[in-house]
Each structure stands twice: as C-alpha cells, then as structure tokens.
Amino acid sequence: MSHEMTMRRLAIVTPVYNDWDSFKTLVEKISQVAVENHWRVCILAVDDGSVHGAPPHFSQAVAGIESIEIVRLIRNLGHQRAIAVGLAALNEKGLDLPAIVMDADGEDNPSDLPRLLAEHDRDPGYIVFARRVRRSENFIFRGFYLFFKLFFRLLTGKSISFGNYSLIPSAALNRVVHLQEIWNHFAAGIMHSGLLWKTIPTTRSRRYVGRSHMNMTALVLHGLSAVSVYIEIVYVRLLFFALVVMTLDVLGFLALVYVRYFTLLAIPGWATNVAIGLTVIMTQAILFLATLSFVVLSYRSSKMFIPAVDFKDYLMNIERVDAG
To answer: Of 2, 76, 132, 316, which has the fewest CB atoms closer than 10 Å, so is most exposed?
Structure first.
C-alpha cells in the first residue's frame, strides 16, 4: 500500500467573521499538524456575512491541506448558526470523514487535534469535545462565564464546561445536522440530543490577531441561547418555582386570617401592607405562569428549523480556494 493511501483524511469546519488574517494563520498551523501526523485535511470556512477583508489566496500549495472552501452566507447569522450551516454543507458533500468544529481565531489550538483523533479512535461512536480547564480571558469575563455556568446548571440541571471545539464521527454527522437545537447552540444541542459524547481537557489559547468579538452582551445572548435548548426542562422548573411561590402566598394569607379570627393576638399595623404585598406577588406568579405556558406551547407548535434541510436558504455560494 502506498504512503499516499495510508494518509488519514479529515474535515474541519470553522466560522469566520471578518477575521481572515487569523484564518490564514489557522490554516498554516493546521498544515504543520497535518504534516507531522500524515493527514490530508479538507477545510470549510463559513464566511458569516463578512464585510471587511477577503479570504486569503495561497501562492503555493499548503502542505497537508487537501482543499479549502469558503461557504459564503447571504447574511450574518452568528457563530452558532454559521457552524450549523457549515456542518450541513459538509454533510451534503458525503465525504464520510471525521468532522472537526473549531474557531478560526486561534483560541482553539490545532495542536489538540491529534488528541481529539486519538480519543475518537478509542471510542469511535462518541462525539468528542475539548473541555477547557484553563481560560485566557480577563478576570471579569471569567467571572461572568462562571455565573453563566451556574445559571445554566440551576435552570437545566446540566453542567456545561466546553464550547464548539469538537470532533464529530462521520457516522454521526447526518444525525447532528438534523438536530433543530444546534441552530441556537451547538454544544448544548448535542448535549440535549441523546447522542453519545465525551470530553478531553484542553487549555484555551490566545487569539492570533486582534481582539475577541465576544463581549458581555454577546456572552449573555450566547448563554440564553444555550438555555433555550432546554426550554421544556426550564419551563417545568420555573413552573414548580411559581407553584412554590403561590403556595407560600396562600400560607401567608392563612396565617393572617388565623391570627385575626382564631387567636387573641393583636394584628400589627403592617398586616394590611403584608396582605397587599402577598396579593401582588400572587398575581405576578399567575401572570408569569400563564405567559410562560403560552411561550412554550407556541414553541412546540412552531415549525422546526432543520439545518440539513433549510441551510440553503442562507447559502450564497461555495468558493474553492487553491491550497493543495
């Protein structure tokens, strides 16, 4: 068997928004890892409606890179949805390759790729996520991220300690792109799907160029998107919380009535204010419960967006970049 035939092939999907300098550096880093491990890599860069810069053109072949294709979106969809479109485009090609999802900015280190592949070889049926054991952001950002994880655990009962950097076995890719949930949040969608997954520890690296697009507003929206994947579990938990509040409200009223009519204790002057406050809380709990119920019922009755089926609505074209 020839050396060329023994080379391993894999595909990489990475979203890019205006960050083409980082993407070029990423390609070079992937090339180094591919050469060291005798791989041939197909790269799909999802251009998420970029308005600055242009995809790089390589003057000579990039070692280890079999092809580079730019999946152009007709508008900016955001990081998570760009990944969903990229995976759907890859699935349609029918390449039957392990699919790597990673950021293009350098925070997902290509040097971890051999470890992802090694873990995949040990358990081929599992999706493998890179779990971050150490982050590179500032203290304030890390504090907010910790709060998000606690908030997510409180509302869903699940723990999330990883992002998009992952390996999807070729046999699982078709199932992944038919998950409605990955349209809002890729990692949470996999967790919710029931598919087999595991993690390996990694250290988050620093960006190649410029500053991160993930500010506090984006982090909050990202966190809410993750929670939305578990909307039915969140609904049940909030339902019980509202019922507890209403029960405590009723008990408070009963305590006031008991003291007023069945004991000789004097009713304090603030009892009226307490009764009014309990009435307001009860009304708000009922309105909250009704509103939440209508939101969940509307969600369940709405048409699902399936990336594998609907991704072409946002696809402008696919452009091949000469690299191999």
So the answer is: 2
Contact (Cβ atoms closer than 8 angstroms) between residue 309 and residue 187: no
Return the number of other C-beta atoms located less than 10 Å from residue 229's C-beta.
26
Q: What is the CATH number of domain 3-230+307-321?
A: 3.90.550.10
* Domain range list for the chain: 3-230+307-321, 232-301
The candidate with the shortest Cα–Cα distance to 66, out of 110, 12, 19, is 12
Evaluate whether 98 touches 169 at the Cβ level (below 8 Å). Answer: yes
* pLDDT surpassing 80 at residue 139: no
Give the sheet arrangement for strand 65-73, strand by strand: 197-203, 127-134, 162-168, 99-101, 8-16, 39-47, 65-73, 315-321
Tokens of 121: 């070889």
What is the band of 59 on the pLDDT scale with cuts at 50, 70, 90? low
- 204-246 pLDDT, tens per residue? 788 887 766 666 677 777 777 888 888 888 888 888 888 888 8
pLDDT band at 279 (very low <50, low <70, confident <90, very high): confident
- pLDDT reported for residue 9: 94
